[in-house]
Amino acid sequence: MTLLAQNLLDACTTAILAVTPNDLRIVSANQASALLLGYAQHDLIGRSILEIETGLQEHFFWADVQNGGNAHISQLETDYRHAQGYFLSVCKSVRSTTWEDQTLCVISFYDISQSKRLERESALTASLLFATLESTADGIVVTDLDGHIRHCNAAMMQIWQWSDTHHSEALFEWIKPQLKNAEEFQNWLDLLYSDPYLESQFAAHLHDGRFYDFNSQAQRLGEAPEGRIFSVHDSTAIKTSEAALRIAHQKAQAASHAKSEFLSHMSHELRTPLNAILGFAQLIYIDTDNPQRLLGNYIINAGRHLLDMINEVLDLASIEAGKLTLRHETVDLAPIVRDCCELMQNLASEKNIHLFIDLPLSGCWVEGDARRIKQILLNFTSNAIKYNRPAGSVTLSISQTQSANWRLMVSDTGYGISESDQAQLFMAFSRVGEQQEEIEGTGIGLAFTRKLAQLMQGAVGVKSTLNVGSEFWVDFPAVTPVAAPSSINSGSTEAKQRQILYIEDDQLSQKLMSRIFEQQRAHYVLVLASTAAEGLLLAQQQIPDLILLDRHLPDATGASLLVQLKMDETTRHIPVIALSGDALAEDIHQAIQLGFDAYLTKPLDIAKALPIIDNALGYIHQGI
Length: 624
What we know:
Layout: H1 3-11, E1 15-19, E2 26-29, H2 31-37, H3 41-44, H4 56-66, E3 73-81, E4 87-99, E5 102-111, H5 113-135, E6 139-144, E7 149-152, H6 154-160, H7 171-175, H8 182-194, E8 200-205, E9 211-221, E10 224-234, H9 236-286, H10 293-320, E11 329-332, H11 333-350, E12 354-358, E13 365-368, H12 370-386, E14 393-400, E15 405-412, H13 419-422, H14 445-455, E16 459-465, E17 469-477, E18 498-503, H15 507-520, E19 524-529, H16 532-542, E20 546-549, H17 558-567, E21 576-580, H18 585-594, E22 598-601, H19 606-616
């Protein structure tokens, strides 16, 4: 081969070999072929082509060439042996030509190893993707931008019982008759294919009761949309659970409402007759000239004991129903202890028990409801007195615990409580100890006390030793005190005649209120009405200075009558006080929110009720 021809071959970037057909020896090789095969150019010259093309197919080809066969191949993929022994993937072409009266087979080839590797990687990725799509329980559909299906996995076909893969546009038409909301589904599809970039979801409800969630998003090539991908997930179990939860929630709400209605009804029904009993008993006791004052006092004590039992039952039921409302205020425990000691002094004297208090010098501030904290302490103290030994003692103390809580403790020198009985102390309707038959009680107090303390982030505890005594305590987190604003009473002490309209259907309650005003507020004129209609008419005609309104009337509720009074120009300025047996905190709060100026509960405590009525009329009375 001339120098010019060799230079031309070396300048070519495609690898080229020239082989003689009779002995299959390489007679020429350019630099590109030497570099690709790892040989020096002169090392390739004289080698048999079969040292490089080692495959069986190549052996048959070159044998045919030696026998005068066709020496023409175009773009055949094969493997060439490298000088270092490994194989290269190449694409070769063979042409037969004549050079200087000699027949030569010219082989041109190039390396396709990189493209082969990419093909393998692409095939592996496709295989993994296919395996993933087929193994998922969700249905997967890929469509073009016109809605024709490109791929549909087995789960999708199984979900919809569809096998007509030859009509790719028919899948969605097959799905629609199975849906309760088929029209909405079609509108959703139309929206998706009108905007190739849109991502959206659709909840499908089938006639057979199943639910499926469709999700769709664009299939992109770079930033350009190429089609749509749909995933379909079976949400039947979730929807069924949600429906069951909704039903359970509705039943719970209904039960809670029924319990609230029951509590309100029972409170009203129990307190209304007690209102007459305690009210008339108080009038007998207040009358210093009445020879039955002692009898009146007995009735008051028995009635109040019954009222306490009713309150305990209703309070415990209120907590169980989640209806007990507490005030959140900063409270100093020391005055509560002093008040409790003063309130319990008569009971202690009757039982020959000595009361002591042990208080810190500085304030003991906690956050809670002062009335309820006093209720807890009174319960502990009354138990300590009632279950004490003769001439025993009870100590009310306040101390600070290691965890920076304030501890209210009641210690007694009673008979103590066994460990087995201590486990039952805070259980509702459980009474322990040998004295339980001799002492009045419901067994509710301590159970209610613990629940009450928990509602105020407090905790109760007990420590007792037989024949030594017991310690009951409640712990509350300590807080920093907040100064309370001062208030000024601007009422008048002048006894002017006032007219009060009392709207109440219970005749005993009417008679009781009449007797109270006759004895205690003779300058108050009481006008009575037994129905809402009668009360509204009297209010409009007589324009009273105050209205006392029962919440349960035969022809309307007190709340609805209050609305009518406030809407009338002639009566909207009249203060209205609710007077009812509904004594739950929730009922009281609701009434105040509706617009009542105050709230009095039955049974009526005359000493507390009259000042509230006086205040509503702007009058200050000296005495009861």
